[in-house]
Give the backbone structure.
Amino acid sequence: MNARLIALDWGTSNLRASLLGEGGRVLETRAAAGGVMAVPEQRFEAALSALAGDWIQAHRCPLVASGMIGSRQGWREAPYVECPAALARVAASLVRVELAGGPTLHIVPGLACIGPDGQDDVMRGEETQLWGAALAPGSCCVLPGTHAKWAWMGEGGTVRAFQTFMTGELYAVLVQHSILGRLMQQGHARPQAFEQGVELGLSEHANATHVIFAARTAGLMGRITPEGLPDFLSGLLIGIEIGSATRHAAPASVAVLGDEALSARYETALSLAGIGHRRVRSDATTRGQWLVAQAAGLVDADARGAT
Amino acid sequence: MNARLIALDWGTSNLRASLLGEGGRVLETRAAAGGVMAVPEQRFEAALSALAGDWIQAHRCPLVASGMIGSRQGWREAPYVECPAALARVAASLVRVELAGGPTLHIVPGLACIGPDGQDDVMRGEETQLWGAALAPGSCCVLPGTHAKWAWMGEGGTVRAFQTFMTGELYAVLVQHSILGRLMQQGHARPQAFEQGVELGLSEHANATHVIFAARTAGLMGRITPEGLPDFLSGLLIGIEIGSATRHAAPASVAVLGDEALSARYETALSLAGIGHRRVRSDATTRGQWLVAQAAGLVDADARGAT
């Protein structure tokens, strides 16, 4: 089967490459620790060649890259597209990088959004996943992670608005560098401690910088075991996130788009919040990259659709 | 003038010793990096001797210690006294440690409190400062710091309730270990960026784990300079704290008890929140230690009072 597109999911830590055939079908995938912050001296072309030089030589097909590679610290800056953002507008704003030997790399711009608080918010990479997820107008979608994103979709596949929550990074820095980590013992999952954390985070989301201290005091007082404290804090932070993101209007259902373990945590927490949820197809990233390439005319529209 | 009491403010990082005379007057002070976490192999008696062995020898007066020295990681655990907590009850619960050579060290227990969210909260050392601050019944007092405390006073000098906010530690770990520190440049104070952060934190306190991300995006978008970002984040976190602590009932005025620079920040932020404030006398710690010793009968009641 002929390769039609090399799709790159190029984030802060990792570079994932997928070779896509007709209709966006995934032919082969590869990954390396070649993320934007991991490539020495910003030698991005060398990192790309090392991972997928043979594909580029053999197939001479276009390349599309989404993620932090389009940031100021990346290969070439792709200015943010403002929300509400339609796929067609993003596809018309791809930033071209000519590679040695002929083919062109097309960098997908991220999105910017001014929230109800008047602050800017930004995403890079998640917009492509959102398009790949084929969400209905009016949908709400959460993408758990280091910087979790909540996105609200508008008509015609536009991303209407989104908000970032520092949940994953907060968890990491609090466990590794704050007093909350001191009493913790890492080990097996403690689902009950997680659920206690979620309930507390949901009800006390408006008091976040106080209530996280419960991950110390509950340990001091013996209410949560040292083995339960990591999950208690995880639940607390996810509960705070869900309570905050849905405080003005709780959606009937939230689409969850992320890796298996983290998505399962969010689904448990959403259930405790009385909010429905459904999992988004796991190929949302490559599907989104294919749709961007299609909208930009880099690959033929395919009436049969993907899969 | 005769020494009557050796008062130790023995925290996590530092050990501060004050020699007190009649009426609690401060005769001399000393400090060392001999905090609970800084003393090798919990050799607390050696650390005390190194700093104040000559005082102990020369004056043979009682010693009172407040702070983390009474924690499980300290010299001897002094179990928490539950709120509402009166000075007399705490004075009756001092934990005695007999020192080599005769004199006795009396460790002041910390306080515990179950909040409206059903979670335990704890303090060690601040309770002694609160008593030294001579706050009126119904007062609200904030003690800024690594773990900022808000305390509400009841009748007869009791500590009715309190809440911890992880403001100081959050600031430190976010600046040093999170993506928020990446764009920052430390330098001179930027009062305007601080005030912008406070306003945002006050209005968006219920969305804390989202709104702190503004300390990245405001930098990315050039709305706050790299030199302004540290103060912007400081303002954000203090605004979130004040917004959260006063969300159910804003006090007319808050007493501020802490070091000069941090207290000034809180006073600016309280003014922006429309809340009055007054500074607590700077000798609250030694004054509180003296009052505890007096209530425990370790020193004579002094009709003249201290200064």
Notes: The longest strand of chain A covers residues 3-10. Chain A touches chain B through 45 residues (CB under 8 Å).
